[in-house]
């Protein structure tokens, strides 16, 4: 039986590393897509030592740079004959807002636009695998913080927006993207889900200044371990489809079950708007070529 292959972004630490370790234990081969080659190599060695029967490869890309993402996807498309699971895990909250040359906030770009581009450029490989197996999954890390997100702030330069509200927008975008991907791939055997991992004890929000950062530090002992936070991602990547539920394609999951997201901006209209707007921005970045 051919082993399944999973790609995980941000797999060198935290939830991403815990997810990678568990999937390797379950017999998956892995592609770790990371920004920092040194940290990625260290994670790869750790994973390989613990799982000598798994093939664990490293791909370097910066999710805040569409050209970098496109090059990584081309490398993957030419190297691998299949891709069974794509886990869009990476994300961060900046200490202060920064904007790229398109006036898009950088954490939003990395968390949403970069993962959108990665998924798009790998779409043919995902569909090819699904045509052979009938079962490919895209798992995108969102958060309960989506409740504070607003579509009206997305793709706008708002200099006085707090990093925490920016993070909420990122997580809402992740949730809307997962729904859009489910619709885009409908009928191909590729399914898409979003995940709230819970409040997890990682380096998340460690750079946030002021009261917000202090609260996260104080809450640390009460938070989940990365292994606990990774459980729902692992479930959606590896569980039988009947356990997930066919009708839950596009759904938002937490604690191994579908949950109703709480934000009035979660509408089909906004799903479609975000999809089209993101395509527009990627085209602009690539000089008119998708």
Description:
The protein has helices at residues 14-25, 37-50, 66-79, 106-121, 123-133, 163-184, 210-219, 226-229, 231-238, 241-244, 268-285; strands at residues 5-9, 29-34, 56-60, 85-88, 136-141, 190-196, 252-254, 257-259. The model is unreliable at 214-220 (pLDDT under 50). The chain has an eight-stranded mixed sheet, sandwiched between helices. The longest helix is centred in the middle third of the chain and has 22 residues, at 163-184. It has eleven helices and eight strands. 46% of the residues lie in helices and 13% in strands. Helix 3 runs parallel beside helix 4 (106-121) and helix 4 (106-121) packs parallel to helix 6 (163-184).
Which architecture would the CATH scheme give at its second level?
Answer: 3-Layer(aba) Sandwich
CATH topology: Rossmann fold
Query: Number of folding domains?
Result: 1
Query: What is the CATH class name?
Result: Alpha Beta
- Report the β-strand fraction as a percent range: 5-15%
Q: What shape does the CA trace take?
A: globular
Number of helices: 11
> CATH H level: which superfamily?
NAD(P)-binding Rossmann-like Domain
Number of strands: 8
Distance between the termini: 36 Å
User: Structural class from helices and strands?
Assistant: alpha/beta
Instruction: Give the helix proportion (percent range).
Output: 40-55%
How can the largest sheet be summarized?
A: 8 strands, mixed
* Arithmetic mean of pLDDT: 91
Largest beta sheet: what is the strand line-up?
Answer: 3-2-1-4-5-6-7-8
Low-confidence stretches: 214-220
Q: Rg, please?
A: 18 Å
Spell the H/E element sequence: EHEHEHEHHEHEHHHHEEH
